[in-house]
Amino acid sequence: METEMNISIDGYNICYRITGDGPETVVMLQGWGTELAVYDSVAAIFAGDNRYRFVQFDFPGFGGSDEPKEGWNVDAYADFFCKLMQKLGIAKATLIGHSYGGRVIIKLASRDSIPFEIDRIVLIDSAGIVPEKTAIQKLKIKRYKFLKKFLNYKLIHALFPEIIDDWNSRQGSADYRNATPVMRKCLVMAVNEDLRELMPKIKQETLLIWGDRDTATPIGDAKIMEEKIPHAGLVVLEGTGHFSFLEKPAVFRNVMKNYFQIV
């Protein structure tokens, strides 16, 4: 059974989908800029087992859900998720997080109190580690900030509007360039917050699944998480990048079936 619906949380229209009606709930927390359908192949792994109910949804500003009225940090998204779980009446669940979704899970699992119980955790190519910047990177950031401040003076912009607008449009990552102004604020707050100090507080058994060619969240991040999360184990999908679960679906499916004991 698969049901796709909408729900209102704090006035925001949220898209979500439920597959199956088993007693054990698994919730998928998506990566930045994706929509819930990207994780249909993950839902399909659980669909044939009547023990599970699989929940997918779009965070505010993702997919078909309404955008936040202002920039949200990761804690605000974690607060929203708590309200979603309460609205859906979910008291206990296993959480699976890809990329940005992993950030939210780390925040939730490290809190002293949340209104539901986390059973187990699966982090797929998860974000949460801010890499140390090299001297060259620091110099580039300093130069970028100077140029941005200079080029956006009203007088300079009035003299060369097309050139400056073109320069602005080419700055930042693809995710940043493709985002709306509000979502850009959300992204900037997320990528500048290092969560490694929260990881030792995670009490749940945690499975890390990673692509060894991931350039967005490198395999080194996975090894830091494996070291810092007390009950963590790492599975590496060789030859895959940031969407490892889509790049080697058969291998990913076998890992998940073994972990969740799905026949």
Automatic annotation (TrEMBL):
Protein name (Swiss-Prot/TrEMBL): AB hydrolase-1 domain-containing protein
Signal peptide (UniProt feature, chain positions): none
Organism of this sequence: [Bacteroides] pectinophilus ATCC 43243
This protein's UniProt keywords: Hydrolase
One cellular component (GO) term of this entry: membrane
InterPro entries, per database record: AB_hydrolase_1, AB_hydrolase_fold, AB_hydrolase_sf
Lineage start: Bacteria, Bacillati, Bacillota, Clostridia, Eubacteriales
Claim: Transcription regulation is one of the keywords in the record: no
Domain AB hydrolase-1: 26-252
Pfam annotation, one family: Abhydrolase_6
GO molecular function: hydrolase activity
